[in-house]
Amino acid sequence: MGISQQQPLHHSGTIELILDVLAFKPIGILGGDEFLILLTEVQDIDGVRHVADAVFDALLASHPVGGQAITITASLGISRYPDSGTTPYELMHHADTAMYCSKRRGRNNYQFFSGDMLHGL
Residue 28's CB: how many other CB atoms inside 10 A? Predict the structure, then answer.
């Protein structure tokens, strides 16, 4: 999907609607197709995996936009406090690093940040 086709998807509110159905409110749209979700009630890594799987299920389904069925590919990067960082900047930067690692592995997957990822940049 090219940039001109991505814009209607974002501007149509599709991504926000998908996340709303899952009861996740993105706390920031970082770019045309990047958003941030802050989980405060998840206690362990299995809970994070459950949320990531739910986000994938919702995003990867077909969505009607402008009279056409649109499918989305997704790459998620996950960072966890305090393991991945202790400041908002560190956590966002490390989630971004994990997301790009996910994209390199073929998309439609998620990666948890690890320090080894910084050496592969």
Answer: 11
First to last CA, the chain: 26
Q: Mind listing the pLDDT tens digit for each residue in 77-93?
A: 999 999 999 999 999 99
pTM exceeds 0.85: no
Which stretches of the chain score pLDDT less than 70?
1-32, 120-121
Identify whether the C-beta of residue 70 lies closer than 8 Å to the C-beta of residue 91: no
CA-based max dimension of the chain = 45
38 shares its domain with 85? no
Residues in the chain: 121
What number of helices (H) and strands (E) belong to the chain?
5, 6
Parent domain of 80 = 75-121
**What's 41's DSSP letter?**
S
Residues 12-27 as b or e (16 or more Cβ within 10 Å = b) = eebbeebbeeeebeee
The token pair at 58 is: 């919702």
